[in-house]
Amino acid sequence: MVTMEKDKQLDEFEQLLEDSLSKQHSVADIVEGTVMRKESDGYLVSVKGAKMEAYLPQKEIPTDETLEVGDVKEFYVLREEDDDNPMQLSLSRIAFAQAWAQLNDAKLQGDTILAKVEKTVKGGVVVDVAGLKGFIPSSQLRTGVPFDGLVGTKIEAKVLEADPKKTKLILSQRQAVAEQRDQMVDNVLASLEEDSVVSGTVVRITDFGAFVDINGIDGLLPISEISWQRIKHPSDVLSLGQKLEVKIIKIDNELKRISLSLKRMGENPWQQIEGKFEEGQVITGTVNKITTFGAFINIFPGVEALLPVAEMSNENVNPFDMFKVGDEVKVLIKRFTPQEHRIALSIKDIPAEA
């Protein structure tokens, strides 16, 4: 009985030893091996832990490198060993493996890396990082959307995912920019003054306005501050990457925000029209917008006046049936208060002789 028990323990020990020596190496692992012999199209390599000699194809050896039997080197695992096939190795991909390792370290340590934008694709941009292809989703771009102006530029980014087995490299430019902003925002804000004019670059466009890079931090340019004229969307006037000169209209040191204006770089059209129009004057304007309560008429570049429904006719009318955007209409200035940015118009009160 004692002998049988010892034999059983010995068998278990031998099995554990065999298992430890036959450790399965995975794709993208770096293993140490000894070159055993030359084959017609490659080399056989002894790798500790492998059940059979691994195979190194000739095409996976750099053209400027020569191998001799007995050489001990580090190899990249291209294909795992199974019961029928040996492990397949590569020397050419060692540099890639080292790059993956560096990227993984950057992810763990939160380091910022430099990526070159190669092309825009649906949903983001493809970048090159030390010879590896990576992807920055649109949601992780500072601009929020990819645009052709990014191609060929180098941008700073954070590593979100670095998986060499899946050759998956996902990056974030937005996180890198946010970190930089936190580090420099106080210094930048201290160097700026309200009512000063600064140069910037449009880095993001939204429905409510645009964000402009001012010395490394983003200032908000609201849609209402883009133009004196009515615009439907900021993209009608602005484009990503566009260089602008803007006026700083507010600095909020507590919230660390900058508000900007583009329209105030030019003369206020409401001041320009003082003395050019008067109540009772009949003029011609252009329909800019139609609503249920009236129509907005452009009577001067950047100046809109309201023509209420009640002033369109002595009868009940539907403004959408009377006008379309772009129509030229003759109107009477019924109320003129440019200092309040208000002008009221009328059609029904136009004198018959006008």
Q: Summary?
A:
Helix content is 18%, strand content 40%. It has 354 residues and is α+β, with helices and mostly antiparallel strands.
Describe the fold and architecture.
By secondary structure, the chain is α+β, with helices and mostly antiparallel strands. The protein has four domains: 20-92, OB fold (Dihydrolipoamide Acetyltransferase, E2P); 95-175, Beta Barrel (OB fold (Dihydrolipoamide Acetyltransferase, E2P)), CATH 2.40.50; 192-265, Nucleic acid-binding proteins (OB fold (Dihydrolipoamide Acetyltransferase, E2P)), CATH 2.40.50; 269-346, OB fold (Dihydrolipoamide Acetyltransferase, E2P) (Beta Barrel). Helices cover 18% and strands 40% of the residues. It is built from five helices and 20 strands. It has helices spanning 2-21, 94-109, 173-191, 269-272, 319-322; strands spanning 30-39, 42-47, 54-57, 72-79, 88-90, 112-121, 124-129, 132-137, 154-163, 168-172, 197-206, 209-214, 217-222, 243-252, 257-261, 282-291, 294-300, 303-308, 328-337, 342-346. The strands form four sheets. A five-stranded antiparallel sheet has the order 3-2-1-4-5, with no helix packed on it. Strand 19 (328-337) and strand 20 form a beta hairpin. The longest helix has 20 residues, at 2-21. The termini are far apart.
